[in-house]
Amino acid sequence: MARCGGVTHENSPNQTIVCGPAGAIAEVVADFRARRVICQVLPFRSGFHTPMLAPYLDQFRGFVQDMVIHPPAVPVWSATTASVFPVGAREVRELYVRHLVEPVRFRSLIRNMYAAGFRVFVQIGPGQLGSLIDDTLGDDDHLTVPANSSQRSGLDQLRRVAAAVWVEGGSPDFGALSTIVPPVRTRSPIKLNLSGGSVSLGAAARGLVPSRDTTRSTLDDYTADFPLAAELDAMLRETERTAVAVLRAASPRPAVPRTLRVSTEKPCPICWTTVSPSSGRAGRTRSTGGRWCRRPRSSG
Fold first, then answer.
1. Which residues are paired to 275 by β-bridges?
2. Which residues pair with 17 in a beta bridge?
3. Residue 18 neighbours by CB distance under 10 Å
4. What is the CA radius of gyration of the chain?
5. Which long-range contacts (CB under 8 A, 24 or more apart) does 141-150 make?
6. Residue 5: predicted pLDDT
7. pLDDT tens-digit profile of 229-240?
8. Measured between alpha carbons, how far is 38 from 16 in angstroms, rounded to an integer?
């Protein structure tokens, strides 16, 4: 293990991720497989959560210095320290940078949260974090439930989550998930960018979430300072227009009735006719499609 970059993710008792140069990783994989340890090389390369990223931290430090740090409304836990995030803005910025070069201690985080009294874990967005939590806590009394499921609509799954939390002694607001009683917001929402796939609530949730203004992109807030954001915004808008055009072109169209009129008095425009001089009768004709056909008797 010392030959590679080291552990980047301590996910659960049965899942650990290491990172390093390709040659060193190949040696580690061969060694593990010789010991009958299941392992797989991931289809991407990244130096995040290892000291290999240290030479590139200056740009991240500059970015985090411009961030406005707000005090949390609820305790936020860090997977770097496996404990609650600090409150001070300077300490938060320092931990942000540490997170880039230190391992993700997800297993220790879950164990420490459990020791602090947490028993219900709701996963927001797609992924399989729930299985890592189950692997970590084992037979210890706990509940893991995803807020998104491919087996049912988004709104139905949220109702399932609310019911599960209620069974565990929680007090979810079922009215917020009703299409009859509109939810009442007590404070402005906080937008999170988790770099995950979109979650659809389905047609049943129409009216619960206010419509988003599609004429303005979130990237517009950054185009003045980051030219790359402007290029990316333009590319995404063009991609959207192209996708809509392709989908419209591929949509099934109603059949248009067509009428084919055949006349035995006028010559066929796609065939040529050979006439026998002796009999005055039409011989075989050949169409432009390469097939033989027979024409009616010719008058000449």
1. 282
2. 9
3. 19
4. 33
5. 142/114, 143/119, 143/168, 145/120, 145/121, 146/122, 147/122, 147/123, 147/199, 148/123, 148/124, 148/199
6. 61
7. 777 777 788 788
8. 11
